[in-house]
Automatic annotation (TrEMBL):
This is WIPI1 protein. The keyword Membrane applies. Keywords: Autophagy, Lipid-binding, Membrane, Repeat, WD repeat. It comes from Balaeniceps rex (Shoebill). The lineage of its organism: Eukaryota, Metazoa, Chordata, Craniata, Vertebrata. Belongs to the WD repeat PROPPIN family. Pfam families: PROPPIN. It is found in: Preautophagosomal structure membrane. It is a peripheral membrane protein. InterPro entries: PROPPIN, WD40/YVTN_repeat-like_dom_sf, WD40_repeat_dom_sf, WD40_rpt. One of its GO terms (cellular component) is phagophore assembly site membrane. Residues 362-373 have a biased composition (Polar residues).
Length: 410
């Protein structure tokens, strides 16, 4: 959640999300038009691009060098691509291809997957737990969990009654969130066991299309956005452990009786009763547009970032203690000249202590030959930990030739 990649009719653009006030464009390419998939390997120079001109071809580039690393063609249109430091996953409508990212060799082809018209799949960013999740059924909400390291099926999770609409791993690959096409209930499961840990109700009045589902890096929050104007943020905690003792009122006694009664009800019914409301919400100014959200820490403060298909980035403040309505603090234009559009509450320029997240775009010293600053799988994006050189083995994919971790600025 420190970088934003967008595909446009003329090519693609990469942005660094290291500050609230300034949006830094890291790279722009107009070589391939009508880009509908652009995936960047964390903050490295490796990007994977798919264009409407050749929807069956995946192009892998080293954008700082301006060179193509390789390209692969497939039997049908590419619907989505996911990658971490170990694996690159290409999802077609009825098959999935798993490549070794170090040399781009094809390791596994999962054929005859249930029809997956949207290319729904999720890959853990933690390469030590390279779990892959995708729909196990076209008619029910079954999740197929696959181990991308051992190249074996891990388990199947009966997550929802209806077909799946969204899947997301947390940063360590130990939790998986899911939503169905109804969009009313969001569930979180443990990985690789598949036990249900949390269940959140987004709403009961109307069905919605969940367009984005994402954890915060510390796995304390889960954000869900849809085609409506409301974004919901849930807090992953067991409220019964942290709630203060209720006052001896009629409602308090009824609440305890209600809670006790759930122990004697069938699991399906009691689960419905134990769902929690959203911890925080955002009211977008637009509705009906596709959007993607991220929960990030910028300048030491938790922020919610919302990117909409009309080419805008909205940054909100999130109160991690009390939640409630998130406050819009900045609006950026992604398709214009790069100038920022400000709202009334844009004066957040008080001299906050600079955090790692606020300074990652600065030029730093050249890394040693043995290690290079970068992202580790347990929150290193915020701590600036090091990645061993052996993770980037010599071969077609060579990313350790320049100072590009943390994110570079140009």
């Amino acid at each position: 959640c420190s970088s934003l990649a967008i595909g446009t009719t003329t090519g693609y653009r990469l942005f660094s999300l290291s500050s609230v006030e300034q949006l830094d464009q890291v790279h722009e390419s107009n070589e391939i038009p009508d880009v509908y998939i652009v995936e960047r390997l964390f903050s490295s120079s490796l990007v994977v691009v798919v264009s409407h001109a050749k929807p069956q071809q995946m192009n892998v580039y080293h954008f700082k060098k301006g060179t193509e690393i390789c390209n692969y063609s497939y039997s049908s249109n590419i619907l989505s691509i996911r990658l971490n430091r170990q694996r690159l996953v290409v999802c077609l409508e009825e098959s999935i291809y798993i490549h070794n990212i170090k040399d781009m060799k094809l390791l596994k082809t999962i054929l005859d997957t249930p029809p997956n018209t949207t290319g729904l799949c999720a890959l853990s960013i933690n390469h030590a737990n390279s779990y892959l999740a995708y729909p196990g059924s076209a008619t029910s909400g079954e999740i197929a969990l696959y181990d991308g390291n051992t190249l074996k099926t891990a388990c199947t999770i009966p997550a929802h009654d209806g077909p799946l609409a969204a899947l997301a791993f947390n940063s360590t690959g130990s939790k998986l969130a899911s939503a169905s096409e109804k969009g009313t209930v969001i569930r979180v499961f443990s990985i690789p066991g598949g036990q249900k840990l949390y269940e959140f109700r987004r709403g009961m009045k109307r069905y919605v299309n969940i367009s984005s589902l994402v954890f915060s890096m510390d796995s304390q929050f889960l954000c869900a956005s849809s085609n409506t104007e409301t974004v919901h943020i849930f807090k992953l905690e067991h409220l019964t452990d942290s709630r203060p003792e209720e006052p001896p009122t009629w409602s308090g006694y009824m609440g305890k009786m209600f809670q006790a009664a759930t122990n004697y009800l069938p699991a399906q019914v009691s689960g419905m009763m134990n769902q929690d409301r959203a911890f925080a919400t955002v009211r977008l100014h637009i509705s009906g547009q596709r959007n993607i959200c991220a929960l990030s820490t910028i300048q030491k403060l938790p922020r919610l970032l919302v990117t909409t298909s009309d080419g805008h980035l909205y940054i909100y403040n999130l109160d991690p203690q009390d939640g409630g309505e998130c406050v819009l603090i900045k609006k950026h234009s992604l398709l214009g000249s790069g100038k920022m559009e400000e709202n009334k509450e844009n004066d957040l320029r008080s001299p906050l202590p600079q955090s790692y997240a606020a300074t990652v775009a600065r030029q730093s010293t050249v890394p040693s030959t043995s290690t290079m600053p970068g992202y580790s799988e347990d929150g290193g994006a915020l701590r600036g930990e090091v990645i061993p050189e052996h993770e980037f083995a010599t071969g077609p994919v060579c990313l350790d030739d320049e100072n590009e971790f943390p994110p570079v600025s140009i």
